[in-house]
Every structure is written in C-alpha cells, then in structure tokens.
Amino acid sequence: MKSFYLTDAGRVRSxxxxxxTIVKNLSGEHLMIVADGMGGHRAGEIASSMVxxxxxxxxxxxxxxxxxxxxxxxxxxxxxxxxxxxxKYTEENPESTGMGTTVVLAxxxxxxxxxxxxxxxxxxxxxxxxxxxxTKDHTLVNLLVETGEIAPEEALNHPKKNVLMKxxxxxxxxxxxTFDVDTDVDAIMLCSDGLTNMLTIEQIEKVLNxxxxxIEEKLIKIIKKCNARGGTDNISIAYLVKDGE
Length: 245
What we know:
The radius of gyration is 17 Å and the shape is globular. It contains 7 helices and 11 strands. It is α+β, with helices and mostly antiparallel strands. The strands form 2 sheets. Strands 2, 3, 4, 5, 6 and 9 form a 6-stranded antiparallel β-sheet that branches. The mean pLDDT is 94.
C-alpha cells in the first residue's frame, strides 16, 4: 500500500484549522483522519489537532483493532473522549467559545473497511476509475435535500450550505455515523469541504486517473486546482492506494 496526505491554508484564510494524518498500528492496519476545525482565536486548529493527535497516538499503539464491532466501539469511545476534552478546553478558555471540529475517518484492516464521520468532511472510495462518496454530510442543506425540500442542484450554491447540524464540541454525547464498505476498492480518499466546495467529483477523478503522476503529485495538483479556483477555505486530503502505484 502507498499513502500520502496534505493540508493547505488556501488563498483566503489567514491560518489553517484543518488537521490530517494516516497512521498504522502494530499489525499494519491503517487509520486515516481528516478534521476541519472551527472557532475563533485559533481554537479551530486546536480542536482538529486534538482529534488527529488523540486518535493517531492511541491507534498506533494497538496490536490490532480487533473485530468490526470492536472497531466501532473503539472509535466511538475515543471520539467521545475527544469531545469531552474539547468541551473542557472551551470551559477553561472562554475566548475559545464556539470551538469545534468535523471529523471523517477510514479504518482499513485485512478483513474490513469502515468509514465514520461527524460534520461535512467527506470520505470516498475510488474504484474502476470512479470516486464514490461514502459518508453523508451533517449539514442543514443536506437535511433539506433528504427531506425533499430542495433539489440536489439547489444545494450546490445554497446560501446556508455550510451550516453544520453536527460537530465535535457542540453536544455532550457524540456518535459517529459509520459505514461498512467492501474492501474491494482501488483507493480510499478523505478530504475537508475546502476541496469538495472547490472541485467537482469529475475534476478530482481526472487528476486521480492521471497515471503519469505519483500519489504526492496528484494531491499537490488537486490542491493547486482548488487554489486556482479561489482557495476560499483550508484544503486537506488523505489518500491511500491499496495495491500501490
């Protein structure tokens, strides 16, 4: 397997509130994480860093994640620990009121592939030269689409498209939306909405299908494309190819 991850502040934001990593545990199982922080006084980057640092350090020390049931339990237990830590930090640092973060993750073992998310950072699988979105955004606009109040086309440029319905640091109890996916995929991709708000699925696929580029070059090119289109938000992307390139 080959993997690479990258984050960029974009062209508008003064600093980067995203955090991203890909880690392996002692048996070579992979955990990919992207977190998109929010809040003033740099609180967003503190919140997203708490997600990536906690999950990454704890996962890397595991001999194995165990069964699929064990994995979901472990993820939710640690997500709630992080959520509690964010709430405690906000309580102790009033200037960080409003601090929170999205999280999207993918956990790959030889037996299963799990995705989990809270918020609007996205998880995809890449198979047969096509990207397929796995996660569902916890946004007001996505809720309106699901209830039939607006059409999917209207959601693309809706004035409230960035209003989150769910994020770490906003409630005392959090549960990941989890998705059990067939492991027969070519690659796994996670990203913050700074990518998906700038590029279409087809534009991303075009770069991923460029066989003249290695993974690192593909991700750099994708981020450059986002910035060329305005780079209005921080951009993070994590990519893992199952069979190497």
